[in-house]
C-alpha cells in the first residue's frame, strides 16, 4: 500500500452517520444533539403530502426540539433561494442552539448548507458576493450552524460534501460555496424515504453517484483513503455477483441496484445499496475532487438546463475514454475498473488495463441504455452553437481533478463528436 | 463483500482531520474555525519546556484566537482533574464561541473531551454522578464545546473516539464517560510532536494502538467499515514489506515502526506510521468496541496501577490465544492476522487459520520482546490475591466486544497462568 502519511493529507466527513431502513424516526434525538430549534429545508412535496415530513417533525417535538419551516425547494438552488432563506433565519434570530434540518435531495441539502454557513457570518452580503470569482468577497470564517442532513434521493452525496452548488440566471453560472466547515454535522439516512423518488430521478441521481465514485477514484487529488472509500461504493453500486461480462446478455444488469430501483422503486436492497453508495461518493469526492464528466455537467446545467445527474451520466463514457490513455492514472483507473467489474473481470483475457478499462466503459454504456439515458448531447437539447460556451464554463473545480489536461480544442472535438 | 447496509449502522468520527509533519503551525486557523477563545489542556511538560507549546499558542493569537491555559496533566485523568477543569471553565464563562484545545496523549485529550462535555450541560453535578453505574445520574444531552485535538504520543487514538476514560481512587474504578457528541471536532496530527516521547511510552502507546486495531477488527460489534479501517491501520503499523516469518531472525523487526521509533525517537517514517495507525485505531474502536485485552487492562490499571498501554501489550497474546478458537470470529481473525503478517504469510504452509493465527501471535510476542515488554503479570506487579478483583473489574464495555464469552473461571485460569 502507498502510505497516505508520507506527504500529509486533509480529510473531512460528517461527524456522525446513522443509516437504516425506517430510522427517520430517530431524527428527533439527533436534532436534539445539535440544538433546540430546527429550521427545516424540505426538497420534496411528496414527503409533505404523504405525511412523512409531519412524522419527522413530530419526532423533533417529542425530543424537545421546535421545528420551523424555513424553505421548500424542488429545483437546484439559485442565489435568490439562499438569500431568501438566510433572510428568514435572520428574522428568526437564528444562532447558537439552532440547527438546520435538510430533508431532500442535493438541492435541499445544498440550500441548507449554504444558508447555515451564511447566517453565521458577520457580513450581511448576498451569497453572490461570496461566490465572486475575483476572490475579494466576504469569506466563511465563523462556524456555520450545524446541519442535520436526511438525503432522500440516493444520489448526490451532498450529505457528505463540504460545498453547496448554487446557480444563477443573470449572469448565468453554477458555482460552489465551499468550506471545510460546511460538511453536515450529522447525517441520517433512511433509504425508505427514497421509495417515492420517480424512475427518471432515480436513474439520474444514481448515475451521479456512480460518476462521483469513479471520478473521485481516478482524480489526480485522490488519496489511498478516498480510493478505498470510492472502491467500496463501486462494489455496492455495481455489485460483483452479477454474471455480466463482455458479450453476455445485458439482462443481468437487472441485478445492479440503480437498475433495480429504476424498475421497482420499492426494492429495499436496491435503495439501501444506492443510499450507501451515494454517501460514500460524497465523502470520497469531498476529499479528492472529481473530473471531466462533472466539469462539463456544470456547464450543461448552466447553458442547456440539463439536470445535474443526467448530464453526468451522458458525459461519463466520454470522460472515461478520454482518461483511459493517461499514463500516470493507470493504476487508479484499473482499481476503479476492477471494482466496477468485480467477478466479471475474470471473463476477460488478457487482464490488461486496455481490456479491463474497455469492459468497464462497456458496462457503463449498457447501464445507460438500461436506464433509458440518451448517449448524444443533441438528445438532451445541446446545439453546436452552445459548445464554445460549454467548453469555457467546464473549467471549474471539478475539471481540475481530471487526471488528464484537456485543451479547449480537444474538449470541443469530444463534445462535437457527441452531438 | 458483506454489505454494511443490510442491518443499518452508526458511525462517528472527527469532522476534519489534518495530518502532516510540522503542520502544528496550522493550529491557529483550525482553532479559529471552531471559536474565538481556546481553553488549552496540555499533557506534556516537554512541549512546554521546548517552546513547542508557546509556538502553537502564538499561531492561535496570530489567527485571532485567544488561548487560555486550563489544565496541565501528566497522568491518566481522575474525577477530580475533570471537575477542577470544568470549574475553571465555568469561572471563565466558557460557552458558545469557545473551544478546548487538547495537546498531548490520551490523558490530555480525554480530560479535554470530558470537560468540554460537562461544561455544556445544565447540571452542575460532579463527573462522579455522570459515571454512576446505576444509570440514574445526569446525562450528556447538550452539544459539548468543540474540541481540537493534537495527539502527541502516536498511541491511544483518543483523538478519534467518543469516550473519555476516567479513574477514581476511592472507590477505585476506571470508567468511560461516553457520548457520540464527544468525538473531537477537528484533529490536527503533527507526528513531529511525538519525537520527544520517551522509548517506554513509545512502546506502550504503540502497542495500545496495535491492540486496538486487532481487537476492533475481531470485535463482535465490528462492521465491514471498521474492519477496513483497522486493516489499513495494521498494514501501517506492521508493514508487510519486512521479511520476517516463522523461524526467521527477529532482527527484521527493526523495520516495524513501533520498534523503529522505540530505538530512534526521531525516525520520521516510524512516527508518521504510528500516528496514522493510532488515529485509525481510535476511529475503528469507537465504532466497533474492543475485547478481552482492553477489558483486563482497565482492571490492571485500577488494581495494580499498570499504565494502560503496557497492560494492553502484556494481555494481547493471551487475548489472541483465547479468541483464536472462536468459530464465528474466524473470518475476522483471519483478516486481522493476514493484515498483521502481510507478505510473511506467504512463507506459511498450510494457509489455515490455525497456522496463520499462530504466526500472528508469534509476531506479537517477538514484538513485545523487542520492545522490552514483560510477558508475565508478576513482572508488572500483579499478585495472585489481586486476581479475583481483576476478573470482576474486567467486565466493562471493552469486554462486551470480545468475540468469545469468557467465564470468570476461565479468565481466572488465564490470568493465573500468566503470573
Give a written overview of the molecule.
The structure is a homodimer. Chain A is α/β, with parallel strands linked by helices and about 425 residues long. In chain A, about 45% of the residues lie in helices and about 10% in strands. Chain A has 16 helices and nine strands. Chain A has a six-stranded parallel beta sheet, with helices on both faces. Chain A starts with 8 loop residues before the first strand and ends with a helix. At the A-B interface, β1, β2, α8 and α10 of A face β1, β2, α8 and α10 of B. β1 of chain A pairs antiparallel with β2 of chain B, so a sheet runs across the interface.
Share of β-strand residues of chain A:
5-15%
Low-confidence stretches of chain A: 242-250
Most extensive chain interface and residues per partner: A-B, 45 and 45 residues
Oligomer: homodimer
Question: Biggest β-sheet of chain A, characterized?
Answer: 6 strands, parallel
Number of strands of chain A: 9
Fraction of residues in H or I helices of chain A: 40-55%
**Helix-strand topology string of chain A:** EEHEHHEHEHHEEEEHHHHHHHHHH
Could you say which structural class the secondary elements and strand pairing of chain A correspond to?
A: alpha/beta
Question: What is the alpha-carbon Rg of chain A in Å?
Answer: 21 Å
State mean pLDDT of chain A (0 to 100 scale).
91
Q: Numbering strands along the chain, what is their spatial order in the largest sheet of chain A? A: 2-9-6-5-3-4
Number of helices of chain A: 16
- For the termini of chain A, the CA-CA separation is 42 Å
Shape of chain A: globular
Amino acid at each position: 500500500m502507498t502510505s497516505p502519511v508520507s506527504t500529509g493529507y486533509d480529510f473531512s466527513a460528517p461527524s456522525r452517520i446513522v443509516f437504516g431502513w425506517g430510522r427517520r424516526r430517530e431524527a428527533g434525538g439527533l436534532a436534539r444533539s445539535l440544538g433546540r430549534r430546527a429550521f427545516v429545508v424540505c426538497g420534496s412535496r411528496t414527503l409533505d403530502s404523504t405525511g412523512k415530513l409531519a412524522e419527522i417533525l413530530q419526532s423533533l417535538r417529542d425530543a424537545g426540539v421546535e421545528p420551523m419551516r424555513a424553505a421548500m425547494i424542488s429545483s437546484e438552488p439559485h442565489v435568490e433561494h439562499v438569500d431568501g432563506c438566510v433572510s428568514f433565519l435572520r428574522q428568526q434570530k437564528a444562532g447558537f442552539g439552532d440547527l438546520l434540518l435538510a430533508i431532500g435531495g442535493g438541492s435541499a441539502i445544498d440550500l441548507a448548507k449554504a444558508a447555515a454557513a451564511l447566517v453565521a457570518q458577520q457580513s450581511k452580503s448576498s451569497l453572490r458576493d461570496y461566490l465572486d470569482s475575483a476572490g475579494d468577497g466576504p469569506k466563511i470564517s465563523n462556524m456555520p450552524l450545524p446541519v442535520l442532513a436526511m438525503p432522500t434521493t440516493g444520489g448526490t452525496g451532498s450529505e457528505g460534501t463540504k460545498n453547496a452548488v448554487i446557480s444563477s440566471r443573470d449572469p448565468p453560472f453554477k458555482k460552489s460555496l465551499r468550506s471545510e466547515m460546511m460538511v453536515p454535522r450529522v447525517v441520517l439516512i433512511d433509504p425508505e424515504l427514497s421509495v417515492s423518488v420517480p424512475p427518471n430521478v432515480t436513474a439520474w441521481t444514481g448515475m451521479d453517484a456512480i460518476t462521483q465514485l469513479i471520478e473521485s477514484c481516478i482524480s489526480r487529488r485522490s488519496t489511498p483513503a478516498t480510493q478505498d472509500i470510492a472502491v467500496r461504493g463501486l462494489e455496492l453500486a455495481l455489485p460483483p455477483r452479477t454474471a455480466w461480462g463482455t458479450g453476455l446478455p445485458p439482462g443481468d444488469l437487472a441485478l445492479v441496484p440503480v437498475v433495480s430501483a429504476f424498475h421497482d422503486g420499492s426494492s429495499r436492497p436496491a435503495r439501501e445499496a444506492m443510499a450507501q453508495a451515494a454517501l460514500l461518493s460524497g465523502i470520497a469526492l469531498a476529499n479528492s475532487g472529481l473530473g471531466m464528466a462533472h466539469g462539463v455537467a456544470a456547464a450543461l446545467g448552466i447553458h442547456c438546463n440539463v439536470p445535474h445527474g443526467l448530464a453526468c451520466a451522458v458525459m461519463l463514457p466520454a470522460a472515461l475514454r478520454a482518461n483511459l490513455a493517461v499514463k500516470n492514472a493507470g493504476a487508479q483507473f484499473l482499481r476503479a475498473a476492477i471494482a466496477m467489474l468485480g467477478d466479471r473481470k475474470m471473463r476477460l483475457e488478457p487482464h490488461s488495463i486496455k481490456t479491463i478499462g474497455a469492459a468497464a466503459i462497456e458496462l457503463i454504456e449498457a447501464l445507460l441504455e438500461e436506464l433509458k439515458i440518451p448517449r448524444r448531447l443533441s438528445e438532451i437539447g445541446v446545439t453546436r452553437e452552445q459548445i464554445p460556451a460549454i467548453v469555457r464554463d467546464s473549467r471549474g473545480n471539478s475539471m481540475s481533478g481530471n487526471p488528464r489536461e484537456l485543451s479547449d480544442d480537444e474538449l470541443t472535438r469530444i463534445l462535437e463528436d457527441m452531438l
